[in-house]
Amino acid sequence: MYGAKPSLDDQNTQPVRTTKLLVVQAEARDQRLITEAIASADCEVVFRTALNDLDLIKAEQFNALVINLLDVSGSALDVIGRIKECSPTTEVILISRSADEALWLESIQRGAYECLSSPLDSKELRRIVLNALERNRPA
């Protein structure tokens, strides 16, 4: 059952996994845009204004993560590496105000699913987030 809240399956009493998205975004305008873009997506969304440590990612299994490069400590490439180390299956979508193609290429090589430039295009954002969630959907 895709995107349902955890419940028990009557036949095997196994919990049903929820599709989860973590959004690390400090700017209220972009938070609203992300919320609107994925409004009909059947997933649990957790918002944070900063990613100070990886405890949340270690504690919970997120299918995808949308993160603004302004909202992380350390270099973008280090952050991708740390996220992928503690949660290899989480699809990482980066948002940057910079259109630095070298950074984007290196980010993809280090494990990022996609890189987007700000200001965000809601249709493109929706397509990318939904594809990332589908790619890493619970079985």
Give a description of the structure.
- The protein is α/β, with parallel strands linked by helices and 139 residues long.
- Helices cover 35% and strands 19% of the residues.
- It contains five helices and five strands; from the N terminus they run E-H-E-H-E-H-E-H-E-H.
- It has a five-stranded parallel sheet with strand order 2-1-3-4-5, sandwiched between helices.
- Helix 1 crosses helix 5.
- The longest helix is centred in the C-terminal third of the chain and has 14 residues, at 122-135.
- The radius of gyration is 15 Å and the shape is globular.
- The model is unreliable at 1-16 (pLDDT under 50).
List the helices and strands and how they pair.
Blueprint: E1 20-24, H1 28-37, E2 44-48, H2 55-59, E3 64-68, H3 76-86, E4 91-96, H4 101-109, E5 112-117, H5 122-135
Parallel strand pairs: 1-2, 1-3, 3-4, 4-5
Helix pairs in contact: 1-5
Which terms would index this structure?
5 strands, 19% strand, 35% helix, disordered N terminus, alpha/beta, 139 residues
Gross geometry: globular
Main sheet summary: 5 strands, parallel
How would you name the oligomeric state of the polypeptide chains in this document? single chain
Quick one: how many beta strands? 5
What structural class should be given to the helix and strand makeup? alpha/beta
Task: Provide the helix percentage.
Answer: 25-40%
The number of helical runs is: 5
Query: Biggest sheet: strands side by side, in what order?
Result: 2-1-3-4-5
SSE order, as H and E?
Answer: EHEHEHEHEH
The N- to C-terminal Cα distance equals: 9 Å
Radius of gyration: 15 Å
What would the average pLDDT be, to the nearest integer?
78
**Low-pLDDT segments, ≥5 res:** 1-16
Share of β-strand residues: 15-25%
